[in-house]
Amino acid sequence: GNSVTQMEGPVTLSEEAFLTINCTYTATGYPSLFWYVQYPGEGLQLLLKATKADDKGSNKGFEATYRKETTSFHLEKGSVQVSDSAVYFCALNSGGGADGLTFGKGTHLIIQP
Amino acid sequence: GAGVSQSPSNKVTEKGKDVELRCDPISGHTALYWYRQSLGQGLEFLIYFQGNSAPDKSGLPSDRFSAERTGGSVSTLTIQRTQQEDSAVYLCASSSGRPSREQYFGPGTRLTVT
After folding, report:
1. Which residues contact residue A91 at a Cβ distance below 8 angstroms, ignoring those fewer than 6 apart?
2. pLDDT score at B100
């Protein structure tokens, strides 16, 4: 079956530091890959996505590249801000149509001023 | 435009009671999903609807859980004879379906079973 593994936190960084959150996956077929973010007290929001190998998703300064050879989709940001503090979830789906997402356990990111 | 809405936002119920959770998807979205978020299990996919049909119900945790969708819009998730382990946040999401597969989530219903 499908699975997603991501580094568990909390990850604590200083403002303006470089961020990497690792995500690897196991899936049948050719999955679409996603990063979702959950800010404190808010719902899940789609951060970025990639639907095929070598695609790069980007949004709000965050980037992730779909690497089929290493089955990875690591999230990066060059300079984090306090407002980036949140829980980040890596996810995939691989059905032929609309189907459920398989999520990683989430990484709690804390950015200190 | 309006996003996915869920009601109630919070529900406290006694063990053994039945509860109904409601989801209003984004207008025009044909696919609708239910998930459960709990500390121990993370985010679990429960069931999805394409239109009014749920092709696969195997993700539902037990036969106490059921879901329906009518008119291709509103969905209800019903939990019968609630147990304490049912306490969680129940999330609904909707999607326009292929090809984007992006799912947009509602704020969730926090269920507490006492």
Report:
1. A4, A33, A34, A35, A36, A101, A102, A103, A104, B43
2. 57
